[in-house]
Amino acid sequence: MKNNNWKAGTVLVILAACFWGSMGIFVRKLAAYGFNSIQIVSVRVTLAALVFCIILFAKDREGFKISLRDIPLFFGLGFGSILFFTVCYFSAIKIMSLSAAAILLYTSPIWIMLMSALFFHEKMNKRKLVALVLAFGGCVMVSGISGEGIPLIGLLFGLGSGIGYGLYSILGTIALRKYSPFTVTAYTFLLAAAGSWLICDLKDMMSKFTRAENLTGLVLLCVLTALVTAVIPFLAYTMGLRTLEASKAGILATIEPLVATIIGIVYFSEPLTVFSGIGIFLILGAVVILNRKSS
After folding, report:
1. pLDDT tens-digit map of 179-197
2. What stretches of the chain show up as alpha helix (H) in DSSP?
3. How many structural domains are present in the chain?
4. Which of 48, 50, 154, 277 is deepest in the core (most CB within 10 A)?
5. 262 HSE (CA, 13 A, CB side)
6. What's the pTM value of the predicted model, to 2 decimals?
């Protein structure tokens, strides 16, 4: 039974990573309707927040009760992590290839390591230093040392997405000590949605809906974006963590940039250069090394 639970957890985490890897398709389709990166983020997190709140209401209404002293923590999760990292990631997707954006997003374990050393006083070791060197070299290769790489602003957006994504693990670890995953997720996305409304130019965003030639198709696309890139993968990943160690789940989740790369090549006909390929393996190697247990 335990082995079956482990297999189920593995499947759930891989499923989550595959859904996250498809994010570029939805971002570019919504961009074709005229939505900018921040507006796409707003649509995604707002609809996801609504679904997560419905789930929390159905499972545990008491889960809506949080301590006032923890409000800054949830603001950090909503604004500093989810909102910041998705704006950066969606902006990166529009500037560079899906593979490059996804790989830069997956520098997050490196940032987690540095923030853990800063906030939790975790010690550095040789394994972590090797991972840092590999990740840095991978970022250089992905950015394009041949002169045909991504622009500097794209690199900064990509690294910003990794930092914001890593911050979620740090703050989420603290929040999960006191609250259920459903409470953490619901409040995180609620605050991320509220923050997105302040910066997305709501009037302009709503005008894109009113001017849409196929409003039904656009609304359906928005709902699918929230379900496929947020609700389903977050729930699958959370359920997977019940039977898997976080380190193993983290390694399995690195399938996401590979999925994004395959989608970029097959769906968008994006080229995969030798340098980008080497960079991909260097960064994935850093993530694997970082997540391995010491002998």
Report:
1. 888 898 899 999 999 999 9
2. 2-21, 23-32, 37-59, 71-75, 84-95, 98-105, 108-119, 126-143, 152-175, 181-199, 202-210, 215-226, 232-240, 246-253, 255-266, 274-291
3. 1
4. 48
5. 10
6. 0.78
